[in-house]
Please model this.
Amino acid sequence: MCSLEVPDLEQSIRAAYPEEDVVLWLVNPQDGAERTAGFLAGAGVELPALLDTGGALYRSYPRAEAQGFAPYPVHVVIGPDGVIRYLAFQYDAVALRAAIDDLLDAGR
Model:
């Protein structure tokens, strides 16, 4: 997990939608439960984290850097209908919030 990105996800994304129907999950494709929990506690992050032991989920999204782990995280926004509405392999808080806003606006 990225020590800069994860706290920013909580501050820039999660905090922007305190009353909205937005669920934010972290998925760690490399570290075990103890290391992940220690990282989150040390960073003061309270977002829930899932473990992708072995990286099967992480690798299921095709990208140019198909060999091994890409140096970037995968960001996925899924609509209430279960359809992926946004997929990116780098952190762009503005684009991520725009995708969430589009979904929320469409549901109103």
The chain has a mean pLDDT of 81.
